[in-house]
Structure formats: structure tokens, C-alpha cells
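LOG
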Amino acid sequence: MTIQLKVLYFGSARDQTGVKEEDFRIAEGTTLKGFVEQAFTKYPGLAQVGSLIVAVNCEYEQPTSARVLRDQDEVAFVPPVSGG
């Protein structure tokens, strides 16, 4: 069985993927870490962003998190930002 995620890409993550958002189908029981690995396989440049921040339903998570994703979760890839 598969579930559907809404995936958002911001800043340089969007530059690497060429899309602002997309629906992404994954196997039920997939962890955030497993999904991030799938996203990096689909978009190899995404792995080059460095210090990439990932949020699930507006909550920051480590990209290596064992959190199991659920149907209709929203995952966002946010590059690091700096300011002054």
C-alpha cells in the first residue's frame, strides 16, 4: 500500500529540483530518513544543498529521523538561511 505526501521545496532546494511543490507517493511505513533518501535519488542535486532542514507538518525534524510518515503529511525541504 502507498501513501501520498505533499512535498515543498524552498530556496536553493527548489533550484535543485526545478519544482516548488509536488505530490510524492511512498510505501506505507516509510520513515522520514527513507523518504529523504528517495528524494535525493530523484533529485541528486538536493543532497548538495548542505545543512538542509526538513519539516514535517511544520515541525522541524532531523533528516535521519525514524519518524514514520503518514498519508497526507506535508514535508518541506528548507535550505539554511542567514541574515544580519
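LOG (cont.) second protein
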Amino acid sequence: MNEFRLVDIGEGLTEAEIVSWLVAVGDHVTEDQPVVEIETDKAVVEMPAPVTGTVVSLGGDPGAVIAVGEVLIVIDDGRTGEPAPAVPAGEPAAPAQSPAATQSPAESEPPTGLPTPARSAVASRPLATPATRALARRLGVDLSHVTGSGPGGRIVDADVTTVESAPASSHAAQPTAAQQAPAVTPPAATAGARSGPVAGSRITLRGVRKRTAETMTAAWQSVPHVDSFHEIDVTDLFALREQFKPLAADHGVVVTLTAFFVKATALALVEHPILNSSIDVAAGEIVLHGQRDLGVAVDTPDGLVLPVVRHADERSLIDIARELGRLGEAARSRRLTPAELAGGTFTISNHGVFGGWFGTSLVHGSEVGIAGFGPARRRPELDADDRVVARRGLVMNLAADHRVVDGRDIIEFGLAIRRRLEAPLGLALAGS
């Protein structure tokens, strides 16, 4: 027997939710074959079988939350050996083990009391992406009663929302208690939109929202913030972006303002490396990072996530725009990998897309700073001849860890970003 326990596949992972099983009890699986989709606080991930063999039991029904170290699946690989004693119910989960350790016959434990879904239910698993399955769970829609309109009969988001918006009597069957989402079911919404909560209800704090709550609380409590605000004239930046559109279209990408923000900030970090650092409190040291890896805030139906653009100072605007598009799509479909979310050295937030005027930000994780960009608006200004002219401007907020940087540091860093955005031709020429 081989017990496959949930291991920490991401930075600080402590638990994960079982989205769907790709196999059933009694199925023959091969090593590295995907067997289950799990949802962490960052992404939906397919977990592979550690060995070839027959599925003996599954570690929970879809919707169940299991902790790191708990048994995810048991596979009979045909080996013989003395099984280890079973873990009594109610005792803490065993610590996470390496794949090599979990495959040792002498250390494996016999399956005891693990719930297993019916074979027929898994065998007839509807075709749908993890993002569509997540939408169905939020809306309480049973995918086994949905007709897919996508390629090969695949169920798409529109199929799920169409079923949800139909009268209750038209549903072929209601989902069972085990199929109901553990969190509150929000009202029907358009595909891909953030669903609103139901008044008077409770929403389980989990996934992206839970991680956000934890990291923001830690940032507020442990980091002494210092802020700086800068008004930036982006009139020439808008003109340059218009000139860039044909070239970007030839490369199949759209160059957004965020691409310029990323490039300008990355180059400013080269000039002011103290902002591209982290603090090691235990060692009493400031760690200066050798590369500019910028986390970019992406809004998703589940909350904000921060995929990372690696070596942002060395990339061209076209390359940054392409990477932003790829990471944004992966974020909204919950297909980002842990590696794409880890290791950022500075954060960018373009909250201007939501309107408002300007806002403040909290420093993320072990980083030292974050830059937030507001909306670009037309405003009257006086030119050199005292004539009123129309210009475009935005407000940039910089927040930093005051243990590492002083007011002068953050102001000079902000001016370095401003200088590059107000003379944007240099951004277009920099990078490979």
C-alpha cells in the first residue's frame, strides 16, 4: 500500500480543498497520472499519482478541506510489507513527508475510515475546467445535470450561469449535501464576475481571501509604513502607447499602462536598490536582491493575487505586456503555479482601473515597498507661456517599510519613476 499525503506545494501552505477527483476507487492509475484537483489559497493544482497501482481509497469528498500531512489518496502498488499502525481518529495529522518517504512500504499505514465517493459518480465526471467547477460550486449547480456547449461537450461558464438563472423547477435534480459548496451560495452572476454576498449570511474565510487576511494583518501589525505621493504627467505616455499599438498588434499583445508602470518601476529599482530588498529581522540584516522580480496585483473573482514578472528591468515593453497577459489569464482561471506567485521583490498595483482618485497600499510579505497607480485624468495646466492647456495626470502612492528606508529614500525613488513615465521614450528603447 502507498499513502499519498498532502505536502506543502506552495509557500506556507497549511491546507487545501478537494475540488474534484479524476479517478475512483478501483481504478488503475500510472505514476504521474493526475488523480485529483485541489484548491490552495493561491491556485487550483492537479496532483499526480506517486506510484502505479490500484486506487484503494480517497481522502475526502469534493469540497472537503484537508491539512498538510493528512492522507490524500491510498494506492495499492502491489508491494508487500509490514504496515505501520493506523493513526487513531482525532489525533493531529502527521507532518508532511517527502515523496520518497511516503512510498516506503515499511512506513505506510493501512487505510482506515477514509470516505470514498461512488465509482459511478466519478466515472461519469462532466467535462469542465477547474474555474468552471469553482463557479458551479459557488452557485450550487450540479454539473452532472448541465449540458455542455463547449468543444467536445465541455461545460463552460455560460452553461452554469444559464442553469442557475433558470426557474428552480427546471433543474433536473438538486445537488446532494456532499456536492453543495461549503461556503454560502451567492446569487447568480455573469460569468467571470465577482459574486456578491447574500445579506445576513456568513461566508467561510478560505482560499485567497484567507491568505489575504493573514498577510494584510501581518503587514499592518509588523511593518511601520511610510508613504509618499507623486503627481505624474502621463500625456506623452498616452501618446506613445497609441504609437505602440500597431507594433504590439503585430506581436499579438496589448500594451497596457501597467506594462509601462512595471518597466519604469523596475528601472528605478536598479537606481535605488534599497527599495528592492527585504529585512531579515532574526539576523539583523537587510537583504539586497540581485534581480528585479515585480509582483503585479491582479483582481480575480476570488480576490487579489500577485503573480510575478521576473527580471522586469531586462525585458522589453512588448515582452512585459505579453507576460502580464499570460499571468492575468492564469490568475483569473486559478491556474497559476506556486512558482509564479513566489519570490517577488517589489509590488505594483494599478488601482486606477477601478476609478476613485488615489489610495494607500500595504507592503506585501517580506518586501520593502509597493507602488500604487491611480486613474489617469485630464486636467487643466498652465504651460510655459501661462496658457491653459489640457494634460493627463495620475497620482502615484508609494508605501515602504520605515525600518529599511527613510522619507528621502522613498521620495527620490518616486521621482525616479516619475521621470521615466513623463519621458516614456526611454522605456520603449530599454530592454531586449
